[in-house]
Amino acid sequence: MLVTWKYRPRQSFVETFDPRARWIFSMLVLFSIIKFWDIRFLLFFFALVMTQYALTKLTWAETKRAWLFILVLVVFIVALNTLFTGRGGSGTVLHGGHVLWRVEWRLFGLSIHPTITVERLWFAMSQIVRMLSISILFFIIPYTMDPRLYGVTFRGLGLPDRFAFSMDLAFRFVPTLARDFSTTLDAQRARGYEVERVEGGLIAQIRKMAPLVVPVTMNAILSGEDIVNAMDLRCFGLRPRTWVHKLEYQRRDYLLIGFGLLLFIAAIVVRNILHVGDFWMPAWALQWAA
Amino acid sequence: MEEKRLWQFGTREVVYAAIGAALYGVFSWVTNFLALPAAGNISLRPAVAIPMFFGVVFGPWVGFLSGFVGNILGDFLSGWGFWWYWDLGNGLMGMIPGLIWLSITSYKAKSAIIKAEIMVVIGAAVGMLVPSLLEIFFSGIDLKTAIAGYWFPAFLSDAVNGLILVPILMVAYDSIAARSGR
What ipTM does the predicted assembly reach? Predict the structure, then answer.
């Protein structure tokens, strides 16, 4: 079983930035997006993240799985939210509204009447744009950031040495443990183990995973002891650790962080001082209910 | 022998956190594409037992990193991007069972298994509740959708998988624990 990371060098514009700057920028944009419910502002952020996506040189073939996952999740959650209450967020409340569709069902003596109003529909559209913007902002990261740099990146962002090294080590263990899993699966299959066989109730099916999970886990723990001893013998943790890769901010990284800060400050000013950016619906949309 | 502290994070914890994270990531990825049969809302996610088990055996920091980093790895391998508040939730799901780490002397004792089972349920509940509530701010859904659409299915799945597999892992670990020498 070959484990491959989604990342590969593409020489794209996005990859020229320091990973720390990219993380800081992404978090600043995230906290800017969540301040708005006005679809006009949300479309601006959507255009921004799509521009970032276009600059990554990712292809549809590489990312279609992620796109499908995000689209299914967003549509399901928005549909559920729209049918339930049509409201959401920390402050947006929609009462009444102009009815587009309403039906009444009786279920076990209870009356259920899902209602779609023009306002709920417009809110759902705003919500879809918002969720997609947030998802696209982050889903490009595993495709465009070298896994070897995660440890030094988070160390550079302030994570303690040991936590950052543990993260780095986890990435390095993945191919080894995937290979051990594959070996164990083949060995168990040779002994008549069939993981895909549908038999017994749910509890029996989960317990059937034990012949796979237990040997791989116990072997990994036993191997870990040798690694712990080797690290202790080399005085791990006695002084600050150095890293193979060294990250240095360039001018463009400061510009990227500056742009992110500008967006965030602008978002605060627009929302908290000018009180603009809350839920908005155009007057012509009310004609849908006519 | 060195006295153990609940929140210690020495060389041993660094390595086992990394192993736990890698195991969780690999198992998550593998069980995704093996397309195992599921029943209703409870899906076959045996991988969630890993951060819970590592928390019980190696402490809360190991449990947290196993869940947090492991979920990142699983999502990266599956090509699903990065969802940091769900990574945080998985971290909490591993950390909470780790709070009983120091109180366990034998991993196959009935009392230890019962304590672990209780913490598995609490860990799954709290671990999935935090990101579900954060979705209210990020996705703009309301509380009912957060509970019914996110929290309940995730909690049920994680709790059932953890309740069944964590004791099995604990009993298996008890037989090798004496070999660690620490």
Answer: 0.90
